[in-house]
Amino acid sequence: MTDGPTGPVAGPRAEPAPFSLRATARFIDTVLAATAVSVLFVVVSLPASALPVDDYHASLFWMGLLLFGGSSLLFLYEWLFLVLLGATPGKLMTRVAVVGPGGDRPSRGHAAVRAAVLCLPQSLPCVGQCFTLVESLGAASPGGRALHDRLSGTSVVRTGPPPGGPAADGG
Fold this sequence. Notes:
The protein is mostly helical. Helices cover 56% and strands 8% of the residues. It contains 6 helices and 4 strands, in the order E-E-H-H-H-E-H-H-H-E. The protein has helices spanning 19-48, 55-85, 89-94, 108-119, 127-136, 147-152; strands at 2-4, 7-9, 96-99, 155-158. The strands form 2 sheets. The chain has a two-stranded antiparallel ribbon with strand order 1-2. A two-stranded antiparallel sheet has the order 3-4. Strand 1 and strand 2 form a beta hairpin. Helix 1 (19-48) crosses helix 2 (55-85) and helix 2 (55-85) packs across helix 4 (108-119). It is elongated, with a radius of gyration of 18 Å.
């Protein structure tokens, strides 16, 4: 895999990323996205706490924000980084990338389908997280493609040696 003018470019024989690197990247992305959601929640809560609303309507607002705001932000996080860089920050740190059918960065459509299947179910408490966990375990299968990869036509491939591993030139 090399860096082209549009980001990571994989050849037709790019090596699939192992499940361990994918899981590590997902963990890093989850921590980063949860931090961003928490900061946004605090930023929104400061002016909202000054609004004159009763407790019932305030509870509905916060419940809606937590349920749908978090998964929407996860979707935007995943989609935006895949469209712009071909990888999320966690994937960049673990030296893996998401590629479309041609080996380039995924198109907006491919990235949107991938992000939707991966992130939007999480707006359903407990059930959504269980769905995401089970569908993501497909990456541990011999083909190395989770449901969100299969439905979107994407693959996750190595972009270099693993961090701390031997250099590509053997030295």
